[in-house]
Design brief:
The complex is a heterodimer of chains A (124) and B (228).
Chain A lengths: L2 H6 L4 H26 L10 H8 L2 H29 L3 H27 L7
Helix pairs in contact in A: 2-4, 4-5
Chain B lengths: L6 H27 L5 H10 L3 H29 L6 H35 L30 H9 L4 H5 L24 H7 L28
Helix pairs in contact in B: 1-3, 3-4
The chains are: A mainly alpha (124), B mainly alpha (228).
Chain lengths: 124, 228
């Protein structure tokens, strides 16, 4: 990469920083997610449509799950990007894989958001 | 060039492997949970995923998540709090903490899994004292919340608006949700046996006597409209 090319890039400082921040957020949301699914009375690990809808009918839990989805997808995408840049040497292949990754992340973001936001409580 | 296998190298390699595994798991999880658009399909999927093979995989997932999270904490301490001098000590310290947390989390998971398996196999029903995890003796048909899938939106929002009294009142009782492993929680009623009802109403099917030839009802002619 020439000096000029290097100068035009941003250096990835935001990604480095935000990977750590999203990691911390994920630890907190994951603890909450795990606890409410497996230990929260009265269900104690009984995951059925009814118990999940009961929890998700409250906007707080919906927001919580949406945050979990967004931060999780960001953290995972950043990690895979790091792996691609570390192990794939060819420029064309790298660009192709990063594009595929972007499309995949969009796909999962749409499916996940539709699930969380689009629940109609059985009227579907 | 080859690196020596030291603590930090092992931690980093496992960090990458667990991260990759978790991304694969996340993709699968999002697709599986998107089954929530259909109640029956969701319950069926959860029943399938509740078998003991998947429970073991779930424990493995718990271990992978715990490893990645604790090593991530170690990375954050090294990056932001000048911890690189202590990184090996931190690894082993967090390993011990991770073992404790794993046992603390795995024990309830396993005991709940065994409990719901017993419910599925009928060894624990809503009559037996073990039901509800705490043998709630005050539980009867009146306190157990009614639960139908078809009542859909109106039933749900009525329950959770305001205080989540269900969570406070029936704390610990497993009757809150119908177990995905068993029939729905139908409270015992005083309805008579259906066979007695039939006898009372004198609706009886004639015994199949091979000596009598029952007439075959006429098949309606499709060409004639509305009656014979």
């Amino acid at each position: 990469m020439t000096e000029r090319e290097r100068g035009m890039r941003s250096g990835g400082a935001f990604q480095w920083f935000f990977q750590r921040i999203s990691g911390i957020v994920l630890i907190i949301t994951l603890l909450g997610h795990f606890w409410v699914l497996h230990f929260f009375p009265p269900n104690h690990g009984d995951i059925t449509y009814e118990t999940v809808m009961l929890r998700l009918s409250h906007p707080l839990w919906r927001t919580f799950d949406l945050l979990f989805l967004v931060f999780g997808l960001y953290h995972g995408m950043n990690g895979i990007t790091m792996l691609i840049h570390d192990y794939i040497r060819g420029k064309g292949l790298r660009m192709a894989l990063v594009s595929v990754l972007w499309v995949a992340v969009f796909f999962f973001m749409i499916i996940g958001s539709m699930t969380i936001l689009g629940l109609t409580g059985g009227k579907a | 060039m080859r690196y020596r296998w030291k603590t930090g190298m092992l931690a980093w390699v496992l960090f990458r492997l667990t991260g990759l595994a978790l991304v694969g798991y996340l993709a699968m999880h999002i697709i599986v949970i998107s089954n929530l658009h259909d109640p029956n399909k969701f319950n069926e999927t959860m029943r399938f995923l509740g078998s003991w093979q998947f429970r073991i995989l779930e424990l493995g997932l718990f271990f992978v998540v715990l490893y990645h999270a604790l090593n991530g904490i170690r990375v954050i301490i090294v990056d932001f709090f000048n911890g690189s001098v202590h990184q090996a000590k931190m690894f082993w310290g967090l390993a011990v903490l991770g073992l404790i947390l794993f046992i603390a989390g795995a024990y309830p998971m396993v005991s709940h899994a065994l409990y719901w398996k017993d419910v599925q196999q009928g060894k624990i029903t809503h009559d037996s004292p073990g039901y509800g995890m705490q043998g709630d003796k005050n539980e009867d048909a009146t306190t157990r919340p009614k639960r139908t899938v078809r009542s859909g939106g109106s039933g749900r929002t009525r329950k959770v608006r305001g205080t989540n009294s269900e969570y406070q009142d029936n704390s610990g009782s497993g009757s809150g949700g119908s177990s995905y492993n068993s029939a729905p929680n139908i409270p015992p009623t005083n309805a008579p046996d259906p066979a007695d009802v039939l006898k009372m109403n004198k609706i009886q099917t004639p015994p199949a006597d091979p000596m009598t030839i029952q007439p075959i009802p006429p098949i309606p002619d499709p060409k004639k409209r509305g009656g014979k």
